[in-house]
Amino acid sequence: MRVSVIGAGYVGLVNSVGWCSHGHHVTCIDSNRSLIHNLKNGKTTLYEPGLEQALQQELQTGRLDFQESYGSVAESDVIFIAVSTPSSADGSIDLSCITSCSQSLAAELAKSESFKVIAVRSTVIPGTTEGLILPLLSESGKKPGKDFGLAMIPEFLREGIALEDFSRPDRIVAGISSVDLKTRKLLEELHSVFRCPLVFTSFKTAELVKYASNSFLATRISFANEMSRICEKLDVDVDEVMAAVGMDKRIGPHFLKAGPGFGGSCLPKDVKALVAEFRSHNISALLLDSVLRVNEGQKLRIVEMLKSVIGPLQGKKIAVLGLSFKPETDDIRESSSVAIIRKLLAEGAAVKAYDPRAMEKARSILPAVELCNSPEQSLSGVDAALLVSAWPEFQKPAGFYSSLLKQSPLFDAQRMLDPEEARKAGLAYYSIGRGFPWKNP
Ligand code: UDX
Ligand code: UDX
User: Fold this and answer.
1) pLDDT (0 to 100) of residue 90
2) 104 close to 133: Cβ distance less than 8 angstroms
3) What element of type H or E holds 222?
4) Is 331 a pocket residue for ligand 2 (Cβ < 6 Å)?
5) How far apart are CA 115 and CA 182, in angstroms?
6) For ligand 2, is residue 262 a contact (CB within 6 Å)?
7) Is the distance from the beta carbon of residue 209 to the nearest atom of ligand 2 less than 6 Å?
8) Are 149 and 134 in contact (CB under 8 A)?
9) Which residue CA neighbors atom 26 of ligand 1 most closely?
């Protein structure tokens, strides 16, 4: 089939490369001229394991192209919308990109004679596909169900393993009009390559499934983070607790790791947008409000530990290992490390930071931070060190840290070291979710 993908971000680019790898002709469209230039030349401007290589591979097939204009839409069988849907200041969703993209699509639809399906992949609040996108597309003068089909097919890609999640989805959820059999048939054919359930449902159900999925994942993480607090008081290891909890088939082991709070461009945005949606219907999202509140508090838990051991931060030098919101990505959107560093700077500390991949992205938003070229450089000559994201590169013997930090303490948000090994190496070591001598409540 001929596929167009609007938006060349994490989701749009993975979809473009992914559909091309299944033999389709794909044109990926983006308004960012330099991004399009880089992609045409096989260069990705984000780090996603295997993506740049897959991009170069698919470019060689001659079936993958990148454009600024919407010219390819008229000839496409399927058009995926994967443009940004960021948070507004009050946490609600910003639909400006969706609106402008739908208007551009309508202009192209008006010129087209062949049936095509427009599939929304961007995360949009329930009611958007039917209430905003469909009327905008209908301004083309074309009839939904007859001249074009509309679908809402949320993406469930995790950064760092996005290609894997694209190729092996647990399920495909497709919101369509129940009477639009042409769209159903085309989507069944397009998704026949995936060995997983293909669930057809209503537009609003598909939209809500995405928010409910991400909100539940966020809830599990905040639950683990809340458990970590009582573990610190009881001198119990939160990982041992959650591992045994996760053995219950009804619970499962995934997304129960306590840490510095969840970040990224999706979980925080989507939970906030869903809470805003509850508010717009005058109902309170008591649980999801708490999930967000626990998350905000958790980000700075490690700074509270730091201060309770070394005292006021004014004039102190602190190392921070890990800037991306999680390992295997250079994405620092809503990264807990950024919130932690801002707090350290606000309390008068100087910061020396290192990340295996996110240095470039961090440079622009953390100008007051000394960005180091290695963990060794970051850990030298500091009063304390914080290990924030669990990059494999930070999995070092305790002796590595004690030789660099000398008497300065290491605070570990990911419990990458063994406390007994740290003690033997003479390393002053503390970690979130394990016994900690809290003096204050
Ligand atoms: C995006 C949405 O932000 C997210 O809500 C959804 O779940 C998946 O798609 P992501 O790929 O991370 O996620 O977005 P982002 O990295 O912001 O990339 C979006 C791309 O769309 C950018 O490259 C931007 O230049 C492009 N864009 C945005 C357009 O081409 N046209 C527009 O009108 C707006
Ligand atoms: C998430 C969803 O997993 C994905 O399905 C959706 O399509 C997009 O949003 P992503 O944001 O890429 O994916 O990363 P994810 O692996 O979910 O991690 C999100 C945050 O939660 C990260 O900061 C991560 O460090 C944190 N996390 C994750 C935990 O703190 N504990 C865990 O057990 C899992």
Assistant:
1) 85
2) no
3) helix 203-234
4) no
5) 9
6) yes
7) no
8) no
9) 7
Q: Which ligand is nearest to the CA of 299?
A: 2
- Any ligand 2 atom below 6 A from CB of 264: yes
Segment 114-135 shows an average pLDDT of: 97
Q: Which residues have C-beta within 8 Å of that of residue 366, sequence separation ≥ 6?
A: 323, 338, 341, 351, 353
The whole-angstrom separation of Cα 391 and Cα 399 is 18
| pTM for the full predicted model | 0.95
DSSP string of 113-172, one letter each residue:
-S-EEEEE-S---TTHIIIIIHHHHHTTSPPBTTTEEEEE----PPTTSHHHHHHS-S-E
In a mutational test of the pocket of ligand 1, which residue from 5, 84, 128 has the highest number of ligand atoms less than 8 Å from its CB?
84
- Residue 214: nearest ligand to its CA? 2
Nearest to 433 by CA among 246, 248, 254, 256: 256
Q: What is the number of residues in the chain?
A: 441
The token pair at 368 is: 């007051």
What is the rounded CA–CA span in Å between residue 384 and residue 57?
A: 45
For residues 153 and 172, what is the distance between their CA atoms, to the nearest angstrom? Answer: 7
* CA pair distance 14, 369, nearest whole angstrom: 32
Verify whether ligand 1 is closer than 6 Å to residue 9 (CB atom). Answer: yes
**CA 263 to CA 333: how far, in whole Å?**
7
Catalytic-labelled residue, pool 28, 231, 266, 372: 266
Q: Which atom of ligand 2 is nearest to the CA of 257?
A: 33
Whose alpha carbon is nearest atom 7 of ligand 2?
156
Question: Quick check: helix, strand or coil at residue 244?
Answer: helix
Span 53-110, pLDDT tens digits: 999 999 999 999 999 999 999 999 999 999 999 888 888 889 999 999 999 999 999 9
66 in ligand 1 pocket by Cβ < 6 Å? no
Which residues, other chains included, contact 332 with Cβ-Cβ below 8 Å and sequence gap of 6+? 323, 324, 325, 338, 358, 361, 362, 365
3-state SS class at 430: strand
Q: Determine whether 266 is an active site residue.
A: yes
Q: How far is the CA of 159 from the centre of ligand 1 (A)?
A: 14
Q: Phi and psi for 212 in degrees, rounded to 5? A: -65, -40
Rounded CA-CA distance 328/202 in Å is 35
Question: How many Cα atoms occupy the beta-carbon half-sphere of 350 within 13 Å?
Answer: 11
Rounded Cα distance between 181 and 193, Å, is 20
Give the tokens for residue 55: 């991009």
